[in-house]
Amino acid sequence: MKFVTEEDLRDLYKIKPFTDYVLEPSARMTPGARQFLTDRGISTNDDDSASAGKNEIREPTAVLAEKKNDYKSKKLNSIMKSVEAKFFLTEQELLSRDVLLAQSVICLGKQFSCLKNAVKSKVTVEDLRCKECTGIKNDNFSDDLEDCFEITEFHIQLEKGREIAILHQLRCALDEMISDIQELFKDESGQCEELVGKVNQIANSLSQLICSTYGGKKCLRQN
C-alpha cells in the first residue's frame, strides 16, 4: 500500500498550487499529509479525512447545544430560587403587620414554589384562579399588565406604606424574572409563553393586593 506523505504534497504544491486532491484507491495519507490539506482548505476524496471532518463539526455542535441547555436550566433555577426567597421574606414581615395580607401572599408564594419545582421536573402547573376586578379579567390574567398604578414616595408615607413597598418590591422581582425567562428561552417560544403566562398570573395577583392595600375595595388600575 502506498502512503502519501506531507512532503509529497508539499512538493506537488510548490510545482502548482491545487484546491482538490484525488487520492488513488490503493493509497492512504499520513496524518501529516491530511493536516497539510486541511490547513489549506484543500478537499480530498480520502474517506478517513472526510469522516474526521464530519466528526470535528458534529461533536462540538452537540456539546455546545448541551452546555447551552444546561446553562439555561441552571440560570433559571437560580433566578427562581432568588424570587422564592423574596416571597419568604415578604411573608415573614407581613405576618407581623397584616395577617390576612400575609396569608394571601403565602398562597401566591406556594403557587410560585410549585411552578419552580414543575420547571425543574418538566411538568405543568394549573393556572392560578383569577379574582376578577375592573382591570384584570380571566381573558387577560396571563398577560403582562404592568403595575396598576405607579408607586411613588407618596405611598410609603401612608399608614400601609411599608406593606405597599414590600409588595411592590416583590412584584418588581417577578417582572425582572420574566425578562430573564424571555431572554433564556427566546428560541423556545412555546415553553417561554407558558412559563411567562404563569408568572404573569402571580404578578397580576400581587398588583391586586397592592391596590386593595392602598385603596380598600376600589380598583385603582390605570387603563
Overall, the morphology is rod-shaped
Separation of the first and last Cα atoms: 83 Å
Reading side by side through the largest sheet, how are the strands ordered? 1-3
Q: What's the helix count?
A: 7
Succession of helices and strands: EHEEHEHHHHH
Task: Estimate the helix proportion, in percent.
Answer: 55-70%
Low-confidence stretches: 49-59
Strand content: under 5%
- The class by helix and strand makeup works out as mainly alpha
Count the E strands: 4
How many structural domains?
2
- CA radius of gyration is 30 Å
Describe the largest sheet: 2 strands, parallel
Average residue-wise pLDDT: 84
Written account of the structure:
The chain is mainly alpha-helical. The protein has helices at residues 6-15, 31-39, 47-95, 99-121, 153-156, 161-184, 189-215, and strands at residues 2-4, 20-21, 27-29, 43-44. Strands 1-3 form a two-stranded parallel sheet. It has a two-stranded parallel sheet with strand order 2-4. The protein is rod-shaped and about 90 Å long.
Short description:
The protein is mostly helical and 223 residues long.
